[in-house]
């Protein structure tokens, strides 16, 4: 059985949906049907250009070594796992994902409780922790 999860030494993954996965709604697929179940060894994940992606699945909780997550050009992305992101996550970068804008407001957004532990968060090239600005995108 093929799948990314079999690559147990893989530490970095950069995936561009583009024309390969234009209709993917969940990432990674919670059923593992597209071979996208991810290995726990990943420390960096870059997800870009998934035009129909709406959900990051709860499988992200299994990425116990994940330190950096970058998501860009996913215009329909609106939902993160209810359980949050891994406690190991140190950096989160979000760019061109308008579906997340209101959910990320510091201390008020829906997702604040599940991202507040991340020391470095940048959304649309601005730090969520900039003391000079009331962050709202």
Automatic annotation (TrEMBL):
Q: Name one GO biological process term.
A: defense response
Instruction: Name the SUPFAM superfamilies on file.
Output: L domain-like (SSF52058)
What UniProt keywords are attached to this protein's entry?
Answer: Plant defense
Cross-referenced Gene3D superfamilies, in alphabetical order?
A: Ribonuclease Inhibitor (3.80.10.10)
What InterPro entries has UniProt attached to this entry? Answer: LRR_dom_sf
Record PANTHER family = DISEASE RESISTANCE PROTEIN RGA4, PLANT BROAD-SPECTRUM MILDEW RESISTANCE PROTEIN RPW8
Which spans of this chain does the record mark as coiled coil? none
Q: What is this protein called?
A: Putative disease resistance RPP13-like protein 1
């Amino acid at each position: 059985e093929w799948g990314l999860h079999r690559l147990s030494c893989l530490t970095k993954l950069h995936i561009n949906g583009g024309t390969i996965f234009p209709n993917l709604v969940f990432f990674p697929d919670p059923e593992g049907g597209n071979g996208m179940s991810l290995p726990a060894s990943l420390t960096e994940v870059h997800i870009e250009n998934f035009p129909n992606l709406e959900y990051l699945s709860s499988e992200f909780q299994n990425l116990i070594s994940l330190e950096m997550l970058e998501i860009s050009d996913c215009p329909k992305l609106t939902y993160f796992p209810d359980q949050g992101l891994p406690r190991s996550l140190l950096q989160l970068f979000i760019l061109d994902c308008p579906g997340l804008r209101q959910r990320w407001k510091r201390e008020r957004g829906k997702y604040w409780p599940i991202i507040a532990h991340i020391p470095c968060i940048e959304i649309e090239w601005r730090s969520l922790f900039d003391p000079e600005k009331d962050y709202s995108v």
